[in-house]
């Protein structure tokens, strides 16, 4: 069971709110660079981001996924990204995204490292994993900084529709206890 909010040195991770949708739409859900290696296409209308946030609220209610809004501490109204934990039995799968203007400042390593430790502190969780497109160098670097090990290359593993209509190869990373 993960908490509704987590504070790190520079960041707040918190449960999403419907009002986050307009911020996310303005900052990154429409951005082709941000969504390049993701499994979804850039949003064209605010209603798409609103529908996505609605699925996040439902996920929190059902405890099926734990999607956190990432903000700078002291500015909790302004989302700058998201990080999500998806429990699968004794494992947790991670996903993350950050608005472009905040890249390269070690923000997602700070968020992901903390959430990973929180997951591995749960008695039932032995493994936290993440996959990324083999060309997504920023994501690979982030995972290495968080002490995830690259376990292998999974051929034809994920659809990243902004790059190709065909399934793409991914690296599998994991941190275990
Ligand atoms: C992956 C991502 C979350 C990394 O977050 P971050 O907070 O920028 O992470 P870091 O600051 O540690 O930077 C990681 C790497 O990004 C790259 N990077 C840094 N600034 C960058 C910039 N302005 N433009 C492009 N890449 C940049 C560098 O390779 C950096 O590694 P380095 O520190 O060894 O040079 C972020 O790049 C992002 O949101 N990308 C788009 C969404 C995505 O691909 N999510 C992952 C799906 S698997």
How does this structure look, described?
The chain is of the alpha+beta class. The longest helix is centred in the N-terminal third of the chain and has 17 residues, at 46-62. Helix content is 31%, strand content 32%. The chain has helices spanning 20-29, 32-35, 46-62, 107-120, 137-145, and strands at residues 5-7, 11-14, 66-72, 81-88, 91-98, 127-133, 149-158, 168-176. 32% of the residues are buried. The mean pLDDT is 98. An 8-stranded mixed beta sheet has the order 1-2-3-4-5-6-8-7, sandwiched between helices. It has a domain at 5-126: Aminopeptidase (3-Layer(aba) Sandwich), CATH 3.40.630. A hairpin with a 3-residue loop joins strand 1 (5-7) and strand 2 (11-14). It binds coenzyme A (COA). The site of coenzyme A (COA) has 21 residues, from strand 5, helix 4 and helix 5.
String of helices and strands: EEHHHEEEHEHEE
CATH architecture of one domain: 3-Layer(aba) Sandwich
Low-confidence spans: none
Please report which band the strand proportion falls in: under 5%, 5-15%, 15-25%, 25-35%, 35-45% or over 45%. Answer: 25-35%
CATH class of one domain: Alpha Beta
Q: What's the rounded overall pLDDT mean?
A: 98
Radius of gyration: 15 Å
> Describe the biggest sheet?
8 strands, mixed
CATH superfamily of one domain: Gcn5-related N-acetyltransferase (GNAT)
């Amino acid at each position: 069971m993960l908490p509704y909010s987590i504070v790190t040195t520079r960041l707040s991770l918190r449960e999403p709110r419907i009002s986050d949708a307009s911020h996310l739409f303005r900052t990154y859900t429409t951005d082709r660079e941000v969504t390049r290696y993701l499994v979804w296409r850039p949003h064209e209308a605010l209603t798409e981001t609103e529908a996505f946030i609605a699925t996040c609220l439902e996920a929190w209610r059902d405890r099926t996924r734990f999607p956190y809004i990432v903000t700078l501490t002291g500015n909790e109204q302004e989302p700058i990204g998201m990080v999500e934990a998806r429990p699968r039995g004794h494992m947790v799968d991670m996903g993350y995204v950050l608005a472009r203007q905040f890249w390269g400042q070690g923000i997602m390593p700070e968020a992901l490292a903390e959430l990973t430790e929180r997951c591995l502190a749960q008695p039932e969780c032995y493994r936290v994993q993440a996959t990324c497109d083999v060309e997504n160098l920023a994501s690979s670097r982030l995972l290495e900084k968080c002490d995830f090990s690259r376990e292998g290359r999974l051929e034809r593993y994920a659809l990243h529709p902004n790059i190709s209509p065909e399934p793409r190869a991914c690296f599998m990373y994991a941190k275990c206890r």
